[in-house]
Amino acid sequence: MSSGPDQQHGVYSAMTTALFSHSDCDLHVEPPGHPEQSARLAAVAHALAGMDLLRLDAPLGTDTDILRCHPAPYIARIRKAIPATGWSQVDGDTYLAPGSLQAALRGVGGVCAAVDLVLSGGASNAFVASRPPGHHAETNTAMGFCIFGNIATAAKHALDHHGLSRVAVVDFDVHHGNGTQDLLWNEPRVLFASSHQMPLYPGTGAENEVGAHRQIINIPLRAGSTGADMRAAYATHILPKIVSFAPELILVSAGFDAHRDDPLANLNWSVADFTWLTQQICDLADAHCAGRVVSALEGGYDLDALAACAAAHVTVLKDRGYAR
Ligand SMILES: [Zn+2]
Fold it and tell me: Which of 34, 212, 262, 284 has an alpha carbon within 20 to 30 A of 26's alpha carbon?
C-alpha cells in the first residue's frame, strides 16, 4: 500500500480521475429492442468526451479475479453458452452474443484495474464505463442483463489482493443489487448499502435482508418518491453507517435509472440529485479513505438522462480529484 489514512491531507502524485473503458464492450450485442444496448455506452462516452480525465483501456479480467466471486463451473458454463452466431439466452432477459464474454471480462478487468490504480495513488478516483452491467449476477446465476458481479469482484480484489480490511459498496441503481448482495452476503469486511425502488425487479432488497454479519443495508424507496426522499434516506440510514464502518475504499454501483425519465422504473430523481449523492460519497471518502472512490456503471436506459447523470457524477469525481 502506497497510501493510507496518514496521507489524507498529503500531496498526491496524480491528482486526477481515471476513466476506464474499452471498445470490446460494444461486442456485447443484445437483441433489437433490448434496453441494454451499445448506444448507452456511446451516450456516456459522448457526455464525458470534453472532460480532462486519465483515459485508460480496461484490461481483460482474469479467472483469478472472477473466482473470488463465482465458482469455476459457472465461468465454464458461461464460456460454453457463448454462441458462434446470433444469441443464446441465459436468463429471461439476459442474452449472450459471440462477443459477450470479451465485453464482460473488460468490466471485471476495468474495476480491478481501477482499484489497483486508485490504491497505488496513480489516480485520486476512477469511473469504469463498461457493459454489460454486473450487480444482478449472483454466485451461480446470470440475470438482469448481468454476467459477472463486477463491483463485488472489485471489493474482493481490494480485500484479498491488496489486503484492505474494510470496503464500502454503495449501490444507487434503481434496481436492488441482488447479485452484489448474494456475492457479499457472508463477507464481514464489506459494508454493502443499496437504495432501490421497491416493489420492482428483481424483488429482493427488503430492509430485513441484512447479511450474515448485519453488514448489508437495504433501503427500499416507493414508486413515485423523489430526490428529497432519497436524500433523507441516505442522510438517515446509509451515510451514518458508512461513517461508523470507516471504510478504506468506497466502491459505487452507479446506475442512473432512478432518473425521472428512465423507462424501466418510477423514481423521480434529477441530475442534481445524482450530483448531491456523489458529493456525499466523496465527502465520506475524503474523511475516511483519502478520497479513494471507484465507481462502475450499472443501469440507466434513457440515453439523454444517462448521459447527463453520468456527466454530473464524473464531474464531481473530477472536481474532487483535482482538489486533493
Ligand atoms: Zn437498474
Answer: 262
